[in-house]
Every structure is written in C-alpha cells, then in structure tokens.
Amino acid sequence: MSTAVSSAPTRTYAAYSAPLWKRWLLTRETAVIVLTAAVILYSLANVPNFDGPLTLKFLLQDIAPILLIALPMTLIIITGEIDLSVASIMGLSSVLLGVLHDAGMSIPAAALLALLAGLVCGALNGFLIAYVGLPSLAVTIGTLALFRGIAVGLLGTTAITDFPDTWSDLATGTIGESRIPLVMIPFAVLAVGFVVLLHFSTFGRGVYEIGLNDEAAHFTGVDVARTKMVLFLLSGVVSALAGIYFTLRYGSARGDNATGYELQVIAAVLLGGVSIFGGRGRLHGVLAGVVLIGVIASALRLESVTVNVTNIIVGLLLVASVILPSVLGWAGSRLPRKASAAPPGPRPDKDAATADV
Prior knowledge:
This protein has helices at 20-25, 28-46, 55-78, 86-102, 107-131, 136-155, 165-172, 184-199, 202-212, 214-219, 224-250, 261-271, 283-302, 307-334. The chain is mainly alpha-helical. It has one domain: ABC transporter involved in vitamin B12 uptake, BtuC, CATH 1.10.3470. The N and C termini lie close together (5 Å). The model is unreliable at 1-13 and 350-357 (pLDDT under 50).
C-alpha cells in the first residue's frame, strides 16, 4: 500500500501583503495631499494676507488652466507618452478667439472654432504619435514651436483686448456669494468625467496596460493606437478650453499667452504621483499636486518673490518628482528583508511522494 503526500508552496503577492488601509494611505498620492495641507497651514500662519478674503478666488483662478490641462495630461503620461504642446495650443486658441471676435464673430461662435482648432492640433499630435509611430517628445516639441509660430504669425506682437464685459465678468465671476470661481463648475464636470474614464472603465484599464507594456496591451485586445489618438484629441480640446478661459479672464488675446505653462502642468502631474515611465498614477494625487504648486506660487507672490524664483522652485519640484521614486525604490531594494518561512511539505530536492509498504 502506498500513500502519496504532496504540498504546493503558498503563493503570495507583495502588492496585497499589506492591509487595505495601508495600500490606500501609504502612497505617494497621500503624501502629496498631506504635504499640500501642511503648506497651506504654514502659509495661513506665516504669510501676510494669505488668509485674506480674495486669496482663494485668485488662487483657484490662477490654477484653473493647469487643473484643466492636467486631466488629459495625466492619462497621456500614464501611457508613457507626453504632450509638450499644450501651452502653445492655449496660445493659438487665444489668438483665434481674439482675431475671430475682432472680425465681427460672436464670442460663442469664435470659442467653438477655437475649440475645433484645438481638436485639429490634438489630431495632428495623435496621428503622428499613434499611427506613424514617432516619439511623443520629439513630435510635441515640434508642434509646440509650430502652434506658437502660427499664433504669433496671426497676431504679431499686438494684443486684442476688446472683449465684451459680460464674458469677461463671467470668466472672473464667482458662484453666488462664495469665493469659488465659476470656472470650477466646468472643471468639476470634466474632473468627474476623467475620473470615471480612468478609474472605472475598460478604457482606463487599457490606459494603464499601455503604460506597463503597449505590446502586451495590444495582444490583450487594447487598441493602442486608437487609445492614444483619443487622449491627444482630449488634450487638444481641453487645452483650447483653458486658452479661451485664460483670454477672457485677462481680457487679452496674445500670441505668447500661457508661455511656460507646460512646465507647470507636467510638474504637477509628476509631483502628484504619476510615473514618467508610465503605468501608474491617480487623478486625486495630480489635483493635489496642482494645488500644491499653486499655493507655493501664491505664497511667494505675497512675499514679493519674483516669478523667476517661483519657476526655479517648480523646476526643482519637477526634478525631485522624477528622481525621488527611483531613489526610494533603490533604497528599498537595499534594505534587508525578512526571510519567509519555508512552506510545509517535501524539500525541493526530494520526491514529492513517498511510499510506505
């Protein structure tokens, strides 16, 4: 008589080895949220006039374009791509709004054509990247110069400032008696849409799969080219919307509007926990990153610090957000790990079955 005794080793997954609350709270996104709250509290206590009645209004108005563009930019970077042309699309939509209105067109009609132009810009980026296969960094650097050149060429060095007070007041108005700008309403609608798209849809799962391995994503049924095309189309339209808001808020259409905004958007996205290599990131961390950069800029402005210093700080944050995850990963790999207990059962070098007669 023989009795077979076998034992399979217990398989564990590191991602689920910690309790749920740790996996939700001990993340880069949570760290950014905590850091943002700390900077806000510090500014309220130490920066003169930061607790003034208009600070919240101006802060939200300043970061509104960055908040808008950060939504599609998050998805693009998660796929492992990047869009450096967003600020130039803002400038081009600003110029188109001004030129078309100056030619006698109404603001809604001019804004609609400006949004269409943003869609065309996004389509150009998406086609060259998704279907031609060119690297997004090279493509969007080129289109950054192209779109900015068209904007400056259409308007030159002049500015169009003759916008109806009704639309300017709408861009700078607030919700009722609160200090929350009206622009937060369309932003909230778009934010909910992008959260659902990224975190609660098959399209969003495909975005993460592309960022992890686009070839593997293709073999699992994800239409990689179409997904990237859609993301760049969304980026173009949302950037144009941000350019329209920017123009009406300041009452000025210029070819150099929003110059340098792409740096702030990308810095906020990476600071919010999105990996520059693709495959990971969450929108709530990105929104916290935008607010963090906005609070720092607002506090420094109230302290009479020049814009150049603010740009240096934003640049340092951008570098830190790229380097820090790699440093932490390297440090974690160097730490000694507890050896796991050997599973019960036969040793690997012995037969899996024993016979007793």
